[in-house]
UniProtKB/TrEMBL annotation:
Similarity-based family: Belongs to the pseudouridine synthase RsuA family.
Protein name: Pseudouridine synthase
Pfam family, one: S4
SUPFAM superfamilies: Alpha-L RNA-binding motif, Pseudouridine synthase
EC number: 5.4.99.-
InterPro entries (UniProt xref): PsdUridine_s_RsuA/RluB/E/F_cat (IPR042092), PsdUridine_synth_cat_dom_sf (IPR020103), PsdUridine_synth_RsuA/RluA (IPR006145), PsdUridine_synth_RsuA/RluB/E/F (IPR000748), PsdUridine_synth_RsuA/RluB_CS (IPR018496), RsuA_PseudoU_synthase (IPR050343), S4_RNA-bd (IPR002942), S4_RNA-bd_sf (IPR036986)
BP GO annotations: enzyme-directed rRNA pseudouridine synthesis
Ranges for domain RNA-binding S4: 4-61
Alphabetically ordered keywords of this record: Isomerase, RNA-binding
Single GO term (MF): rRNA pseudouridine synthase activity
Coiled coil regions in record: none
GO CC terms in record: cytosol
């Protein structure tokens, strides 16, 4: 949170919305290191002491977790249908974490969990071209011409996808199915399933194997680990 705008830090700490935090600042309710602040845009460092109406601000430590999401779990903080969410796997994490992007209910694989909103936005914004690699089991065996369509971009939901990378990992003539690796940097709703559906090979099972340079190595379904400092730095340098 180093060198962040005061109202943003207040909002992220749960004091109030950013707009309400701005009102608290301009009306003289906030001090930084004992000095009353009324100017919007004031920036603060991690070590600064912030008080709102004399009450010290509790600033959350930023956490970055790599989670192996199982199938049958919702990638959300809560679910109106009361289905199991990813949050049930983090009962001892005190910070208010949330998933970076989403994985479908019936899709397993790598998912980042954090409370760093700035990084989450950077990783999910299309302009950053952050690659995600999926392994899909599909009906039938796609031809190279069909996969070439995915490599050049294919129109789904009236919009052309960006070029994808594809690789046939295995095929089963007897069962009439194939395992295909697909790498994309977009994150549209049900995108991978729709891409394979478009070329006539529906997905029957899907797993996200890689998130940029991060992999599931060493993790079993339902397990998670904290990111290493070097991994966090590498993510932020994008």
């Amino acid at each position: 949170m180093a060198n962040e705008r005061l109202q943003k830090v207040m909002a992220e700490a749960g004091v109030a919305s950013r707009r309400k935090s701005e009102t608290l600042i301009t009306s003289g309710h906030v001090t930084v290191n004992g000095k009353k602040i009324t100017t919007l845009g004031t920036k603060v460092e991690d070590e600064d002491r912030i008080e709102v109406n004399g009450i010290p601000l509790q600033r959350e430590k930023l956490v970055y977790l790599l989670f192996y999401k199982p199938r049958g779990v919702i990638s959300s903080v809560s679910d109106e249908k009361h289905r199991k969410t990813v949050m049930s796997y983090f009962p001892d994490v005190r910070q208010r974490i949330y998933p970076v992007g989403r994985l479908d209910y019936d899709t397993s694989g790598i998912l980042l969990m954090t409370n760093d909103g700035k990084l989450a936005n950077q990783l999910t914004h299309p302009k950053y071209h952050f690659e995600k690699t999926y392994v899909a089991k599909v009906e039938g065996i796609p031809t190279n011409d069909q996969l070439e369509k995915l490599r050049h971009g294919i129109r789904i939901d009236r919009k052309l996808t960006s070029p994808a990378k594809t690789k046939v990992l295995s095929s089963d003539l007897e069962k009439k199915s194939a395992i295909i690796e697909l790498t994309i940097h977009e994150g549209r709703n049900h995108q991978v399933k729709k891409m394979f559906e478009k070329i006539g090979h529906p997905v029957t099972k899907l797993k996200r194997e890689k998130y940029g340079f991060l992999t599931l190595d060493g993790l079993q379904s339902g397990e998670w680990r904290a990111l290493k400092a070097t991994e966090i730095t590498r993510l932020k340098k994008r």
